[in-house]
Amino acid sequence: MATPRIVSLKEMSALVGRSPKTIWRWWRKEQSFPPPQQNNGRTIGWSEADYEAWLNGEWQQ
After folding, report:
1. Nearest to 4 by CA among 40, 31, 29
2. In the chain, which ranges are E strands?
3. What are 2-61's pLDDT values in tens digits?
4. Is residue 60 a part of any domain in this protein?
5. Is residue 32 part of a domain?
6. Could you tell me the residue range of the domain that residue 16 belongs to?
7. Which residues of 9-22 are buried (b: 16+ CB within 10 A; e: fewer)?
8. In total, how many domains does the chain have?
């Protein structure tokens, strides 16, 4: 079974066209963005599936 791809903060920032600070604000304060995940105990980022669901308006808290 393949490990889900994790998108880094830098890459996510480029994908959504917003600063890293804005992405963190969306997640922490507004709760309008999926929470980050930890991969292998060291890498923090977002599941590509969560990002795609958010992009398509299908992500729910």
Report:
1. 40
2. 6-7, 37-39, 43-47
3. 677 889 999 999 999 999 999 999 999 999 999 998 877 777 899 999 999 999 999 877
4. no
5. yes
6. 6-55
7. eeebbeeeeeeeee
8. 1
37 domain-assigned: yes
Q: Please choose, from the candidates 16, 3, 7, the residue with its C-alpha nearest in 3D space to the C-alpha of residue 46.
A: 7
Burial class from Cβ neighbours inside 10 Å (0-12, 13-18, 19+) for residue 59 reads middle
User: Given the structure tokens 């994790």, which residue do they identify?
Assistant: 6
Indicate the pTM of the whole model: 0.80
Alpha-carbon distance of 8 to 51, in angstroms, equals 11
Residue 48 lies in a domain: yes
Q: Is 31 in contact with 14 (CB distance < 8 Å)?
A: no
